[in-house]
Design goal:
The complex is a heterodimer of chains A (769) and B (289).
Chain A: H1 3-18, H2 21-48, E1 54-59, E2 70-71, E3 74-75, E4 89-93, H3 99-102, H4 113-121, E5 127-130, H5 135-160, E6 186-188, H6 194-221, H7 240-243, H8 248-281, H9 283-288, H10 294-328, H11 344-365, H12 369-374, H13 376-393, H14 399-402, H15 407-417, H16 421-424, H17 428-451, H18 453-457, H19 465-474, H20 482-505, H21 512-535, H22 539-543, H23 550-562, H24 564-577, H25 582-592, H26 598-626, H27 631-644, H28 649-669, H29 673-706, H30 708-717, E7 718-721, E8 724-727, H31 729-746
Parallel strand pairs in A: 1-4, 1-5
Antiparallel strand pairs in A: 2-3, 5-6, 7-8
Helix pairs in contact in A: 1-10, 2-10, 5-6, 8-10, 8-11, 8-13, 8-15, 10-11, 10-17, 11-17, 13-15, 20-21, 20-26, 21-26, 23-29, 23-31, 24-28, 24-31, 26-27, 26-28, 26-29, 27-28, 28-29, 29-30
Chain B: E1 2-12, E2 18-29, E3 33-38, H1 45-52, E4 60-65, E5 68-69, H2 74-79, E6 81-85, H3 96-106, H4 111-124, H5 140-152, E7 158-162, H6 170-185, E8 189-194, H7 197-203, E9 206-211, E10 214-219, H8 221-228, H9 233-251
Parallel strand pairs in B: 3-8, 3-9, 6-7, 7-8
Antiparallel strand pairs in B: 1-2, 1-4, 4-5, 9-10
The chains are: A mainly alpha (769), B alpha/beta (289).
Chain lengths: 769, 289
């Protein structure tokens, strides 16, 4: 591979795209015009879109006295922070004459809530404010009472005179304060209606203010300072004001999302044009018959796509930023932070790299531009949650989150824009690693597509469902094909997803054991059984039910023990990186706490899953995958599917690791039984130690005195913490080494071969003259 | 210069089973010779040529072009061939000059080396008027010229043409065939596929007749005429094809007649075997060369 060819192809593609008027329009002209136009129309529309005033019907407000609530037919202006806001509430005071017009029976008006409902339903008003009949009077009475009570206290005090030290004597006896029951004013509104909710909010604010005034007036009536109720004010001071990061909160959310969206869109159309478009126009064959290697072609095109992705993103961001600055800059809360936005520029390269390589891979796979363009929407759907979630839910940038593709990148950008460069700095490494890893695999996949004859030269085939299914059944071989294996995996995931929601929806409460059994049978066994019976001829070969060597069995069981410390370490690391939801944690801990009758638990959580999941993932799926990809990749893919089939993220990761080990055992021993053994023993150990740890941490002292020998051994192995039992690092390392040795010992002398290989097409003849 | 031995190619048929696009193709073409592949649609001509130009990988057998193995040394093969097919179009937004230069660069030449070569080529092919015309505005004839120039720019010893006159009008096709003849006279090895008999008669030094992935017969036109006792090549062609189809449908199994001549290296005339002898190309006899 030479860089020269890559450069030649890259230059040609760029030149070609630049000559395409449509591309230039999309990339250059559209953003430059779009945002100013949007800003302009936003401005125009905002003229029309003034906030409408709320219409309130007020019942029973006739006798309200001091302090005044109403003033000239509206709420008193001094109750609002901004006097103009009083205009936002238009009041209509109920009088009996209006009853007919409003459709209310006059005698009911004062105290029947149903009346308010009727009025609201007619939508003539946004909210109804009801003062009960006795409200004003009781308020007055209350104030009188307060005044009298304080008066009495004063008289008592002056009557008793001053004490020896010159201070007023202590008050004797409780002062009885007759507090009349004050009926509460009521606001009627409807959350189904946005205007009504808005009206409620405004009304609530006003009335709260008025309540404070009433309270202050009560105190004054008794001769006490009104400040007694409000002894202090809370001051606020916005630090962002000084450092210029005012609008950071808003823009740090918007800009990364836009960067990602524009990088993706800007990459997608050129990619489709450069790959699928070439296929359609017939120039691909010419290019492929030139000395340029497929890798060079892919890299040259990738470069061109990246340029356009970056150009699109940059132009859009600049245009949007300028428009935002001009249009919203005068609103101090929304001003975009000026310099920290420059972080977007270095972020541009990895972002566009990853999306360009993704887009190129997909475009290389598509057989026509039409097909290629259909893939954009699913890609967006997959990417947007990864982009939107961190911003919406307020995820933090931690080691765990920085390892998630795209999400980590967005979180990092967000932190940088908000001005936290110093704290965000160390996370650049995991984010870069994950992003670059993604690019690498995407490029590899694109090269694979460019080497795939079926993708390059086949036209779209006509699809007939019946024929296809019949063919699948008729032509089934001993073992399933890779596609069937993948389909089985997906089916399991679907059923799992469906079942979780069915349980939630119908709130099926069964005890844990029963739930686990049902899940295993329905989610795992049913799909696998169905597909094996329909699409494979040989159950033995599909499920690898050959008798294993004693070495294999013994080795697998040994491995389960030896890998326990490493597994525990992994689990605790995962829980540290991605902490469990506290409720979930309680639930899971509670599950392992029952020691009364452990046997059903072991059957349901160790033995049954071992049999079912191994049959599925190391049986049907692994065997099928090995017909198409290398054994190593087959193990990885089956482990991924295995991990995904667990609903809890933390479990998924540990399951993936376990899946890798199990796959390796399946390959090495060429049988399913050692895998089942490993799985069962491993689950039992985890459960057992979990249960023991739960018991022992509570009762450690007592246990220690009872069995000093055992506890001494346990102490040697590790220590208890709130995460559970942790093995000493030395123990973990030693056991890992031992496990590696056992694995080598299990490795059969003949090289690894998938049973059932003979079903492939005649191999390439190698005739040497 | 170009040699295939028992070349086979299988596909998975989406409707079930496998398609044998090529089922044991053997032929040889030498420099200064135009070798024609003749056959109906679906015979395997395009597949053979795509394998020779390394666009496809053979399922079995071997193909050697200019001394390089197509499967194991594809890059070398590509450097030594010029490939033109119905599907090798021109880029819409590139001018003729740019396009030929682009491929010249990919073949490893520098701009300075390319310039005199391209001047010469454009002169010879009378392309100077269309130097700056973008592909989208070219007529079919012009596009064809650009494709030829593109295939010739690096002066390859082997040229592979897949139905090059398809869709061309009579005059342009005639010019093209003339050019091909001139190239042959320069000593290039040319493989040429078509389903038009007249081209075979006028152009090909030797020809192989394909049907359903097999060579039914091969040799010079004269040889074929003598062998089949028929002056009209078209008649020979139809007879062979129909017989092959009958045998296939009759038995339900594929069993084409396989009389063919095999020219061994160093011999001037091929031995013609009697029809019905059906020698198996997989026998060791052939390996003597």
């Amino acid at each position: 591979m030479t860089g020269r060819n890559v450069r030649i192809i890259f230059e040609r593609e760029i030149r070609d795209q630049l000559r395409d008027r449509r591309t230039l329009m999309m990339v250059a002209v559209l953003p430059v015009l779009l945002y100013p136009l949007m800003g302009l129309s936003f401005f125009q529309i905002s003229q029309v879109m003034r906030p409408k005033p709320s219409r309130i019907l007020v019942l029973g407000a006739q006798e309200l006295g001091d302090p005044p609530l109403f003033e000239e037919g509206r709420f008193a202006a001094h109750l609002f922070r901004n006097p103009e806001e009083a205009r936002q509430l238009e009041l209509e005071f109920y009088t009996p004459e209006k009853a007919a017009a409003l459709g209310i029976a006059p005698e009911k008006a004062d105290d029947d809530p149903a009346v308010a409902e009727t009025v609201l339903r007619t939508r003539a008003f946004d909210a109804v404010l009801l003062f009960p009949p006795q409200f004003a009077r009781r308020l007055e009475t209350f104030r009188e009472e307060v005044r009298r009570a304080i008066e009495r206290l004063r008289l008592e005090r002056s009557a008793e005179g001053e004490g020896p030290s010159g201070e007023p004597p202590l008050l004797g006896g409780a002062v009885a304060l007759i507090v009349p029951e004050i009926p509460n004013p009521q606001i009627f509104y409807s959350t189904a209606n946005e205007r009504s909710t808005e009206a409620f909010r405004r009304l609530n604010d006003v009335l709260m203010q008025w309540r404070e005034h009433v309270g202050a007036a009560n105190l004054s009536a008794g001769g006490l300072p009104p400040q007694a109720a409000k002894p202090f004010r809370v001051l606020e001071s916005d630090v962002a004001e000084d450092s210029g990061f005012r609008g950071a909160a808003l823009w740090s959310k918007i800009m990364p999302i836009l960067l990602v969206v524009w990088a993706l869109t800007g990459a997608f159309y050129p990619a489709v044009d450069l790959c699928a478009g070439e296929k359609e126009r017939g120039t691909l064959e010419t290019l492929l018959s030139s000395p340029a290697e497929r890798v060079e072609v892919v890299l040259g095109k990738l470069g061109a796509v990246m340029v356009f992705s970056m150009a699109t993103a940059v132009l859009n961001l600049i245009s949007m930023g300028l428009t935002g600055w001009l249009a919203l800059g005068h609103l101090p809360m929304f001003a975009p932070p000026p310099w920290s936005v420059l972080w977007l520029i270095p972020a541009l390269i990895p972002t566009s790299a990853v999306f360009s390589s993704l887009a190129l891979g997909i475009a290389a796979f598509a057989r026509s531009t039409k097909e290629g363009q259909y893939y954009l929407l699913p890609l967006l759907f997959l990417t947007l949650p990864l982009v939107g979630l961190p911003v919406a839910r307020g995820l933090e940038l931690t080691l765990g989150t920085s390892l998630v593709p795209i999400t980590g990148l967005v979180l990092l950008l967000k932190a940088l824009i908000e001005g936290e460069a110093a704290q965000a700095w160390p996370f650049v490494f995991p984010v870069a690693a994950v992003t670059l890893g993604g690019c690498y695999y995407a490029i590899r996949w694109a090269v694979l597509q460019f080497n795939n004859e079926q993708v390059l030269f086949r036209d779209a085939d006509r699809f007939d469902l019946r024929l296809w299914l019949r063919r699948l059944f008729r032509e089934r071989r001993d073992v399933p094909s890779p596609a069937l294996a993948a389909a089985c995996g997906l089916l399991i995931l679907f059923v799992r997803f469906g079942l979780t929601h069915v349980f939630a929806r119908w709130q099926i409460q069964a005890d844990l054991i029963r739930l686990a059994v049902i899940t295993q049978l329905a989610v795992i066994v049913a799909p696998v059984l169905l597909m094996t019976l329909l699409f494979a001829r040989s159950v033995t070969r599909t499920w690898q039910l050959h008798t294993p060597s004693w070495r294999g069995m013994a080795g697998a069981i040994l491995l389960a023990f030896l890998l326990q410390p490493a597994a525990t370490l992994l689990q605790q690391t995962v829980t540290r990186l991605y902490p469990l939801d506290p409720l979930l944690r309680e639930y899971l801990l509670g599950m392992t706490g029952e020691l009364s009758n452990p046997w059903p638990i072991f059957l349901a959580f160790a033995l049954l899953p071992a049999v079912c999941e191994e049959t599925a993932f190391r049986g049907f799926i692994l065997t099928g995958l090995r017909q198409g990809v290398s054994s190593r990749n087959a193990v990885v893919f089956s482990a991924i599917l295995f991990g995904l089939s667990h609903t809890i993220l933390q479990q998924s990761i540990t399951a993936f690791a376990a899946g890798l080990v199990l796959g390796t055992i399946a390959l090495v021993t060429r049988s399913l039984w050692p895998c089942i053994a490993f799985h069962a023993v491993h689950n039992s150990l985890t459960l057992g130690t979990g249960m023991l740890a739960a018991v022992l941490t509570q009762d450690w002292g007592r246990y220690e005195s009872m069995r000093p020998g055992v506890t001494a051994i346990v102490r040697r192995l590790g220590s208890f913490s709130e995460d559970g039992f942790a093995y000493h690092p030395a123990v973990t390392v030693l056991s890992l080494l031992a496990a590696g040795w056992v694995l080598l010992w299990m490795y059969a002398p003949s090289h690894l071969r998938a049973p059932g290989d003979s079903d492939t097409e005649p191999p390439l003849e190698d005739e040497d003259e | 210069m170009v040699k295939t031995k028992n070349l086979t190619k299988y596909y998975d048929d989406p409707r079930g089973g496998t398609v044998r696009a090529l089922d044991g193709i053997d032929f040889e073409a030498r420099p200064g010779e135009i070798f024609g592949l003749l056959g109906p649609n679906g015979a395997g001509k395009t597949t053979t040529l795509r394998i020779l130009s390394t666009l496809l990988r053979p399922s079995g057998g071997r193909a050697v072009v200019a001394g390089f193995d197509c499967l194991r040394q594809p890059a070398q093969v590509r450097r030594n061939i010029g490939f033109m097919s119905v599907n090798t179009a021109v880029y819409d937004r590139m001018t003729a000059w740019e396009m030929v230069e682009y491929f010249g660069l990919l073949y490893g030449w520098t701009r300075e080396q390319l310039r005199p070569r391209m001047e010469h080529l454009f002169d010879r092919l009378k392309m100077n008027e269309i130097r700056d015309v973008p592909g989208g505005r070219m007529s079919t004839g012009m596009k064809q010229k650009v494709s030829i120039a593109r295939a010739l720019v690096h002066d390859p010893p082997v040229l592979i043409f897949d139905e090059p006159t398809s869709g061309l009008d009579v005059l342009v096709a005639r010019n093209l065939l003339q050019t091909i003849r001139e190239l042959r006279d320069q000593g290039k090895c040319i493989i040429f596929s078509t389903h038009i008999m007249r081209e075979v008669e006028k152009l090909c030094d030797r020809v192989a007749i394909l049907c359903r992935g097999r060579i039914l017969t091969q040799g010079t036109p004269d040889e074929l005429r003598r062998h089949f006792g028929e002056d009209d090549l078209e008649e020979i062609f139809f007879r062979l094809i129909t017989e092959a189809e009958l045998v296939r449908n009759g038995d339900g199994r594929e069993q084409g007649e396989r009389p063919h001549s095999h020219r061994r290296r160093g011999e001037t005339e091929g031995t013609v075997e009697a029809p019905g002898a059906a020698p198996n190309p997989r026998t060791k006899e052939m390996r003597k060369s």
